[in-house]
Amino acid sequence: MRSEVGGLHSVLLHRPGNELKRLTPRNSDQLLFDAIPWVDRAQAEHDAFADVLRGRGIEVVLLRDLLVQTLGDARARAAAVHSGVDELRLGQDVADTLRSYLSTVPEQVLAEALTAGMTFEELPGSEGRSLVRRMHHSHDFALTPLPNLLFTRDSSVWVGDRAAIAALAMPARRRESALTDLIYAYHPRFSHSARAYGAHSAPVEGGDVLLLAPGVVAIGVGERTTPAGAESFARSMFADDLAHTVLAVPIEQQRASMHLDTVCTMVDVDAVVMYPAVQHSLTAYALRPKDGDLDVADPEPFLDAAARAMGIDRLRVIDTGLDPVTAEREQWEDGNNTLALSPGVVVAYERNVETNSRLEAAGVEVLRVSGTELGSGRGGPRCMSCPLVREAL
């Protein structure tokens, strides 16, 4: 897979589950959600999203199903239990209790605990033996839930036939990489797949990685992906001959623009939908391999650097919204976060009326889906999907 827009054949999604029911006003900030979603509606919206993809002949692979199947492997189960138990936080007694429980339950129950978490109240064993248990509220988490697992784009990226496991920056999300890593390591579907990047490397998140064209990768550097992560990712791309140019793109470090794909996504081989407030200020450092090392060019306008690396005259830009206020509103509501199913065909949230109209005016087919509840974690159709197989352009 070398592009963002080649015909999509197979995609990894995670249907939201009980992990979303763990969100409360007390913990939502820590777990990176801006609102408390209505879970039944979020599931219905996600089912409709998956049906749109299936209706276009795309294989939808659900992460939960893969995880349950993976946990049938004893090695995977042991690794999953190890990643889920934080002895430094829980202390020896509670950690041993949790390990013992997780090591013996059926795969479905283990998968539920690893994704939806467990409270101290739900732990087996006597309450009085541990100071840690006695000093925590019964509804505090012994095993933290993963509500952001919904956004499968962030924990892994496929480039060519290789999987890059992301190193997620925020503490609330780091176990997502461990579960994704587990699936790619032990599920039979991926037994012959090589790796392009490791979860223990410098922070890089999939929402910051755009495959602009075969051999050309853009990486946003901001709140989630660090300069060291972008550099390490570039070295990995060059070592595996997966890219000839990596563009490191600084983005503002704030919630509204946490990833590059919150301000810019590909909608055709030569077109992007972009937040107009950054169109003329976005820059890029072009990284290329040179004599076994990196050549880092001086920064230049992103659109110019991207077009040159892609070998085209220019990138067509379709703005979010029609005026600054509408643009800001629709950028916040993931108007830029489209998922391309093929060149000129994208899935987008229906609520971004002006942006979708501008896309259609530019010749892009827009398949609208509801994101009233799904968007509460600040993520759109691209965030919710990890393409596994695309056609070559």
Q: How is this structure best described in words?
A:
The chain is α/β, with parallel strands linked by helices. The chain has 2 domains: 8-63 and 147-390, L-arginine/glycine Amidinotransferase, Chain A (5-stranded Propeller); 66-143, Arginine deiminase (Pentein, Orthogonal Bundle). 32% of the residues lie in helices and 24% in strands. The protein contains 12 helices and 20 strands. Strands 8, 9, 10, 13, 14 and 15 form a 6-stranded mixed beta sheet that branches. The chain has a 3-stranded mixed beta sheet with strand order 2-1-20. It has a 3-stranded mixed beta sheet with strand order 5-6-7, with helices on both faces. Helix 12 (353-361) links the parallel strand 18 (345-349) and strand 19 (365-369). Helix 2 crosses helix 7. It is globular, with a radius of gyration of 21 Å. It starts with 7 loop residues before the first strand and ends with a strand. 50% of the residues are buried. The mean pLDDT is 91.
